[in-house]
């Protein structure tokens, strides 16, 4: 299964579901996840910083002290309607393993159930338009 998409600044603090099915003979899942850009372009980032400083009535002589501003997208997983785990990490390229043992930290180690799954894209912060890719492969028995 493969999902590609885009998110924008208006989607910060939202979650986007990507439903998929897992077959009876899957013993594990390997998820390749990436997004770009990681850093918000400097001109846009400085505007975001200045807007934030105004919002909280803060004074700052050098807003560039807060650079870089980074986008943050992460994944969490539901298995047949039950929470399986989350990988809330900062790298914008990740390989996530889901299995009965040696799952990526944050994912519960247990047998992979067949059925309806959900890869939830957690949009923590989008300071610009971001392209993302989620590719899910089954490891067969």
Report on this structure.
The chain is mainly beta. 10% of the residues lie in helices and 49% in strands. It is built from one helix and eight strands; from the N terminus they run βββαβββββ. The protein has one helix at residues 42-55; strands spanning 2-7, 14-22, 26-36, 72-79, 82-87, 93-99, 115-125, 130-140. The strands form two sheets. The chain has a four-stranded antiparallel β-sheet with strand order 1-8-3-6, with no helix packed on it. Strands 2-7-4-5 form a four-stranded antiparallel β-sheet, with no helix packed on it. The chain is elongated, with a radius of gyration of 18 Å. The model has no long low-confidence stretch (mean pLDDT 97).
Name the assembly state: single chain
What's the count of strands? Answer: 8
Q: What does the largest sheet look like?
A: 4 strands, antiparallel
Work out the helicity level.
Answer: under 10%
* Series of H and E elements: EEEHEEEEE
What class, by secondary structure content?
Answer: mainly beta
Unreliable residue runs: none
Q: Helical stretch count?
A: 1
Let me know the average pLDDT: 97
Q: Which sequence of strands runs across the widest sheet?
A: 1-8-3-6
Describe the global form. elongated
In brief:
With 141 residues, the chain is mainly β. It has one helix spanning 42-55; strands spanning 2-7, 14-22, 26-36, 72-79, 82-87, 93-99, 115-125, 130-140. It contains 1 helix and 8 strands.
Task: Give a quick set of tags describing it.
141 residues, four-stranded antiparallel sheet, 1 helix, elongated
């Amino acid at each position: 299964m493969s999902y590609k998409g885009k998110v924008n600044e208006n989607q910060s603090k939202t979650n986007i579901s990507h439903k998929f099915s897992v077959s009876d003979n899957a013993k594990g899942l390997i998820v390749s996840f990436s997004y770009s850009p990681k850093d918000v372009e400097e001109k846009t980032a400085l505007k975001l910083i200045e807007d934030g400083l105004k919002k909280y009535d803060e004074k700052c002589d050098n807003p560039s002290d807060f650079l870089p501003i980074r986008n943050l997208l992460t994944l969490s997983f539901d298995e047949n309607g039950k929470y399986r785990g989350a990988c809330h990490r900062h790298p914008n390229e990740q390989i996530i393993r889901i299995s009965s043992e040696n799952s990526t930290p944050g994912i519960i180690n247990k047998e992979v159930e067949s059925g309806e799954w959900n890869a939830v894209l957690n949009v923590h912060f989008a300071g610009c338009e971001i392209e993302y890719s989620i590719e899910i492969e089954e490891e067969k028995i």
